[in-house]
Amino acid sequence: MKVLKVGTFFDEKSRDFKLEIIAGADGLNRLVTVPDVNRPGLAFAGFFEHLPYERAQIIGIAEFTFLKKLSREQQIDILKKVFSPKQVPCCIITRSFDPLPTMIEVFNEIKVPLLKTSLTSAQLLGDLIYYFDEKLAPSEKLHGVLSNVYGLGVFIRGKSGIGKSECALELVKRGHMLVSDDIVEITKRSGHILIGKSAGISKHHMEIRGIGIIDVQRMFGVANILDESKIELVINLIEWDAAKNHERLGIDEHYTDILGVNVPELTIPVGPGRNLAIIVETASLNQRLKNRGHFSALELSKKLIAQMNKSKNEK
Questions:
Q1: Residues 147 and 103 in one domain
Q2: pLDDT score for 243
């Protein structure tokens, strides 16, 4: 499970989110473990059931106004009950409200970072959740090539030397975009979306056997590279085997599991004379049609069955 230190979050986003530390600086090593955030309004009113302590807590105008109306003793009691648990990573006050004296006192005592921003709660929430989601998203590195073909992220896999990079290079020459060659770092975002990008310093480079390392961006231009892309189709390249019954109709759909997400998968045999780039282009366009509800193979199959039934009835 990925975690994020509050101190790291502050260092990376204090400028973007207009953050400043008000109290609890000793707690910057506390960990953010989930991408969601919480507004503890109900807890301030005394309802603690199902309170998600593990989330970053946001105090907006409603929470601040309610807390301000309480007595000093009530404020201290509520603040300790809500923010003392060890799971609480931090608290952020929006709209540049000056924290109450009790807040500074309590947060310093319990060593929970209290931050302040000039942004409104609505402005902060979306960007904050997106940032946490990106930092905490499950990820793994897989061997293969990721290209964006006709706007569809295609992850090409296969054993070493089968022609993945050569196929991706031909796709680049045909106007499509390279995301990563050899190693693809894949993260799972909210909504079961897989995002792939290049891992490490090999970004925008390819290894072509017989030539060596080439810089795709400098050679073909920025129009042919992408920093990241969704992964919406997996293509497995295998060696052609005349004795094997390779897929011909494409009626049966196959999927592969990546980080718990089922991604459409095709297995394409590689043999002499086969133009892999054109096949990948066709597969991408066909998948886009499927995504829009048009399944060509299945539709043709239904037409053939209907024609056979018609001929049978005429007899």
A1: no
A2: 67
Q: Which residue of the set 39, 182, 203, 205 is catalytic?
A: 182
In the chain, what are the helix, strand and coil shares in percent, each to the nearest 5?
35, 30, 35
pLDDT tens-digit profile of 18-44?
A: 999 999 999 999 999 999 999 999 999
Residue 18: left (phi > 0), alpha (psi -120 to 50), or beta? Answer: left
Q: Which one is catalytic: 157, 164, 176, 204?
A: 164
Q: Judge whether 173 counts as a catalytic residue.
A: no
pLDDT digits (tens, 9 = 90+) for 108-148: 999 999 999 999 999 999 999 999 999 999 999 999 999 99
- What is the model's pTM? 0.77
143 given a catalytic annotation: yes
Q: Is 164 a catalytic residue?
A: yes
Of 2, 68, 141, 143, the catalytic one is 143
Domain span holding position 214: 139-301
pLDDT for 271 beyond 90: no
In a domain, 312, yes or no: no
Q: Pick the catalytic residue: 15, 50, 244, 248?
A: 248
Asked about 248 being catalytic, the answer comes back as yes
